[in-house]
Design goal:
By secondary structure, the chain is of the alpha+beta class. It is about 50% helix and about 10% strand. A 5-stranded mixed sheet has the order 2-3-9-6-4, with helices on one face.
């Protein structure tokens, strides 16, 4: 087993030009990334790419996620795609995903006072109630298109309830979140009309909504964000809007896609679905296995702000490092039989799907809770799950997941 060593334990130091090449824009890679990554991993802990380097070994990915010499690449990433100024770029520049160092520490400290594990735990009862209500709508039919029947509706209602958004506005928030998700993809240029429409709709709504909460505080996350204070420091107006937008994205689009992935995996592994239905105590482990086996987010892009050494390679400052959390989750050095989807497997290392270090996903606890509560109900009420046709998927250029997931199961009788 090769050990990761930032000091270059592989022998004499090499340049990035010496690394094996991987073009992750090629259709063949998009269709079957695991095969290409396995070949790279057999030779090296990283590959040279058309835009920088991709790190594929678990130990290296985990170390780099927490390395202070790496910064967020979100702003350089969108600049490369033509978005470099204007109100959308300004809002994005104040997002928690974009900032580093003292700015990031300050924002994270302020929002953590409002976004607590306790606030998530208080939603579990609502998660169970909503899951049951949504399943009531199709359980007796014996089939459903899961994304529209469940995944599109469940997480948006949960994040809106946490934020304090009235139920009649949840659908609008879902549409805005769908538009904004393209900011984290390679399709910013082609999707700009959708991004702009979502930005304008959300910005206009939040301006009025925030003022309402300033004058009439409520027991919700937006009020707590407005009131969050640390030594006299508060979120500025643009930081507040950016934070709410980021929470909307983190609490909706990633979770809806991860739920779709979960149901697609279980439809393809019926024995695992039966195992979960007969052993509800496995639900937490099942969620972790879904996250490990196929995450909706498979990479964490970073920019080196100083020279770093990874597995014997000297990486210069200004390099775009694609930290492949998806590859790390399938590294045989970290997980026994990583290609096996097994919800009963004891895996001592948690999945890296939520990232790590300072930019560890703020909504991880919420996403885990939503998946745990919904899967516990779905596995009981939708027995004999299988695909009811061909699933359709988003491209692997951003948030990944099914856009169309037809399922069939044994119809529930009253």
């Amino acid at each position: 087993m090769r050990q990761f060593d930032t000091g270059g334990s592989y022998g004499s130091m090499k340049s990035l030009d010496d690394a094996p090449f991987l073009n992750f824009f090629e259709p063949d890679f998009q269709a079957d990334p695991a095969t290409f990554i396995d070949r790279i991993r057999a030779e090296s802990c990283l590959a040279r790419t058309p835009i920088g380097a991709m790190v594929v070994e678990h130990a290296a990915v985990e170390a780099m996620l927490a390395d202070p010499r790496l910064n967020s690449s979100l702003l350089p990433f969108v600049r490369l795609q033509g978005l470099s100024d204007g109100p959308i770029f300004e809002l994005l520049s104040r997002a928690l995903l974009s900032v580093d160092g003292e700015d990031h520490t300050r924002l994270r400290k302020l929002v953590s006072r409002a976004f607590t594990p306790r606030s998530v735990e208080m939603l579990r009862s609502s998660m169970r109630t909503l899951s049951a209500e949504l399943v009531d709508g199709f359980a007796a039919d014996g089939r459903c298109e899961f994304m529209t029947a469940f995944a599109d509706r469940y997480p948006i209602q949960m994040i809106c309830e946490l934020l304090g958004v009235p139920r009649e506005d949840h659908e609008r928030f879902g549409k805005w979140a769908n538009g904004l998700t393209w900011l984290l993809s390679l399709e910013v240029g082609t999707r700009m009309p959708e991004i702009e429409a979502a930005f304008l709709g959300l910005a206009g709504y939040l301006e009025e909504f925030i003022e309402q909460r300033r004058s009439r505080p409520c027991d919700d996350l937006v009020t707590r964000l407005i009131q969050a204070e640390d030594g006299g420091d508060r979120l500025s107006p643009i930081e507040l809007r950016s934070m709410i937008g980021a929470l909307l994205f983190a609490g909706y689009d990633t979770t809806r896609n991860q739920l779709g992935i979960a149901m697609a995996l279980f439809a393809q592994h019926p024995a695992q679905w039966r195992l979960l239905g007969g052993n509800p105590g496995l639900v937490n482990r099942a969620v972790e296995e879904v996250l490990r086996f196929m995450g909706t987010v498979t990479v964490a892009p970073r920019i080196t702000c100083a020279e770093v050494e990874i597995g014997g390679y000297r990486i210069p400052p200004g390099t775009l490092l694609t930290l492949s959390t998806g590859a790390a989750n399938h590294d045989p050095a970290a997980h026994d039989q990583p290609g096996l989807f097994d919800i009963a497997a004891e895996r001592p290392l948690p999945p890296l799907t939520f990232g790590g270090g300072p930019h560890y996903c703020l909504g991880a606890n919420l996403a885990r809770a939503e998946m745990q509560e919904s899967l516990a109900i779905l596995c009981k009420r939708l027995p004999d799950l299988e695909l009811d046709g061909e699933a359709q998927w988003r491209p692997r250029t951003g948030i990944f997941g099914p856009t169309h997931l037809p399922l069939r199961f044994t119809a529930e009788t009253k």
